[in-house]
Amino acid sequence: MESEQLFSRGLGRNSYNSITSASSDEELLDGAGVIMDFHTTEDDSLLDGDTSPGSNYTMSNGGGGAGASSSTHLLDLLEEPIPGVGTYDDFHTIDWVREKCKDRERHRKINSKKKESAWEFSKSLCDAWSGWLVVTLTGLASGALAGVIDIAADWLNDLKEGVCLSAMWFNHEQCCWDSNETTFAERDKCPQWKTWAELILGQAEGPGSYIMNYFMFTFWALSFAFLAVSLVKVFAPYACGSGIPEIKTILSGFIIRGYLGKWTLMIKTITLVLAVASGLSLGKEGPLVHVACCCGNIFSYLFPKYSKNEAKKREVLSAASAAGVSVAFGAPIGGVLFSLEEVSYYFPLKTLWRSFFAALVAAFVLRSINPFGNSRLVLFYVEYHTPWYLFELFPFILLGVFGGLWGAFFIRANIAWCRRRKSTRFGKYPVLEVITVAAITAIVAFPNPYTRQNTSELIKELFTDCGPLESSQLCQYRSQMNGSQAFPAGSDAAAAPGVYTAMWQLSLALIFKIIMTIFTFGLKVPSGLFIPSMAIGAIAGRIVGIAVEQLAYYHHDWFLFREWCEVGADCITPGLYAMVGAAACLGGVTRMTVSLVVIVFELTGGLEYIVPLMAAVMTSKWVGDAFGREGIYEAHIRLNGYPFLDAKEEFTHTTLARDVMRPRRNDLPLSVLTQDDMTLAELQNIISQTSYNGFPVIVSKESERLVGFALRRDITIAIENSRRKQEGIVLNSRVYFTQHAPTLPADSPRPLKLRSILDMSPFTVTDHTPMEIVVDIFRKLGLRQCLVTHNGILLGIITKKNILEHLEELKQHVEPLVISPSHSAC
């Protein structure tokens, strides 16, 4: 969805609550405490009239209790939370400060009551342990769903080639486990497993058999793809894509209702299996993060502590994203670091512990299910018998350069294609697009054994070191003793024709994967990017590894190899190059560093090779950043117009707050409310004639001294609530935001008090504040808007939308003051 659509859905033109960012809860806590707890001063007389000097009170953001006095009306005595106030509409942002204040108030109330009775004490214990319980449930559900997805995807993927007659629910590998008729060279062939040609034509070889298998492979691929896109389109449109860009945006404080709901979870789980089995160039790892976050969101509704507080709910989602990566790669620690580095906008120590626990529980459940049948968490476990040597850093760095170039090219090409999809009629037919891409993928992939097989199996084969138990074409080397083809266990040897054939097939597979991944990522089916990127890097790495291996074999007297490689001794491990290339390409696309290295060595068990991984990943990031600092997820966030302020992006310009604030010189005046001299009719007129999501409240039109800030939604709900519960509220009723009602004639209708919805502590900056500081404040405090003042007089407002527009203008080298009034905010 485009940014203008986002802003128009309830946000309106020039809305300034449409966008905000997440922040650190501890910083919010400290910042809110400084801003919101204060003593009355001489300015308070401007707000409360007869408030006694020196009185001491505390305001809470979005709520403000006030004592009653004899001069107030009945409404003052009924001061209580208004139902609906403090909630958020779809495509709006949360108020982090208010949410944190609500949580602190809830926590104080529980602590004050826990000594009253055993029941209250047990309630406080339940509240304290609810966070651990919700992440435990999230980890259990994530691990179970990941195991089911892995097993089902493997079974459906093998269904494209044949079926197990002895047990229909077995995939190809499981079908041949108990067979006594398999051979070493053809260990995947057994009487129990029948190809479609054998079942339909009764023959296993020949042109007719090949054509029948080709047809059935394409038929099943198209069927799976069609079913997946149809389910997504009809039942859960949010189930498409990776989900990580949207989760990053949600964790920054944005509301996308239904994106983490039960229907999305159900459809994403089913369609992810179908999409992976269809053979499209996509993976299940990114969508598994989305699935885990759906579990976290659903379980959070079981506990009021999280269901009624959007900021606390995001702590659960951060832990859920760690559990998602934990089960996607079998990398619990890497999952925690992924959540910290890539997904979460804020990651306090408490969330770190819970993320670690959620990842642990999810990994334990997945290990118990054992979906890969190898008694390990991961599919790509490798054991290399040769250490790496110093001269190999050069090809490792070259692989890092390739990964950075591939990442930069992929991001630009994929974003260009997605933008074209949005702006042309082709994007209106998602089913046709998916079917077309699936058909091309299946038709081109079948003749090449390296593109026909499951991408995860391809990566596993490329990572594997050659030994006596390997029958792959990549391991067909000539024996040094008699020149015949053999499978040497521990020595470098000349490559046999099978290796060169495999090199050509891998080169064609590399080109195919590069092209198809560009057009596949962004389709209206669940589509992850981790596995395709790793496959591209693994293919390139294996090719480079074999090339270096043969170079060392035939030129062992070169100065590079002379010191390290003895004749007949182990020297080069091509599988290690595949692993390094996979990490480099994934790093080039996502721009991850620390978490990626940890994920890869957890994924493969190759802890000894962490230095080559670090060198390649860092090189990949540097090369990629030279062409653009955005990773693929940030690029898709910007493409979709999501309101996200990237904390990694630096602001180096010298503009001031007055250059960005609204209104501008030629704009309409700022829409404001006065604290005690407006009628209900005037207030409703302002609301009906504007589309802003909130209004600054000032002392008077003459003074323009700032009092606070009131949200449009809260005002509307408060008015409806007062009319429903109170008599005498009419259009002529005076509306006041002060502590006590203003002096009115005796025959005046009952006034309407709205102080409880007034934010008495809106964040303000002066007009000379550098924008570098303002942007940092928005990032760290998660502000929805910031008011600009001069000597206490309100001048304007800065919203996150204004900041994003300003950053975009600076990127395009447009002067910030040159802007049309139609794009101005409040």
TrEMBL record:
InterPro entries in UniProt: CBS_dom, CBS_dom_sf, Cl-channel_core, ClC, ClC3
GO MF entry, a single one: voltage-gated chloride channel activity
Any single Gene Ontology cellular-component annotation: lysosomal membrane
Entries under Gene3D superfamilies matching the protein: 3.90.1280.20, Clc chloride channel
Claim: Ion transport is one of the keywords in the record: yes
Transmembrane intervals: 217-239, 259-280, 287-304, 316-340, 389-411, 431-450, 502-523, 535-556, 576-601
Region (Disordered): 43-65
Membrane topology value: Multi-pass membrane protein
Alphabetical list of SMART domains matching this protein: CBS (SM00116)
Keywords recorded for this protein, A-Z: Antiport, ATP-binding, CBS domain, Cell membrane, Chloride, Endosome, Glycoprotein, Ion transport, Lysosome, Membrane, Nucleotide-binding, Repeat, Transmembrane, Transmembrane helix, Transport
Subcellular location: Cell membrane; Early endosome membrane; Late endosome membrane; Lysosome membrane
Domain CBS span(s) in chain numbering: 661-727, 758-817
Short name of one Pfam family: Voltage_CLC
SUPFAM superfamilies cross-referenced by the UniProt entry: CBS-domain pair, Clc chloride channel
Its biological purpose: Strongly outwardly rectifying, electrogenic H(+)/Cl(-)exchanger which mediates the exchange of chloride ions against protons. The CLC channel family contains both chloride channels and proton-coupled anion transporters that exchange chloride or another anion for protons. The presence of conserved gating glutamate residues is typical for family members that function as antiporters.
The family this protein is said to belong to: Belongs to the chloride channel (TC 2.A.49) family. ClC-3/CLCN3 subfamily.
Protein name: Chloride channel protein
Organism: Carassius auratus
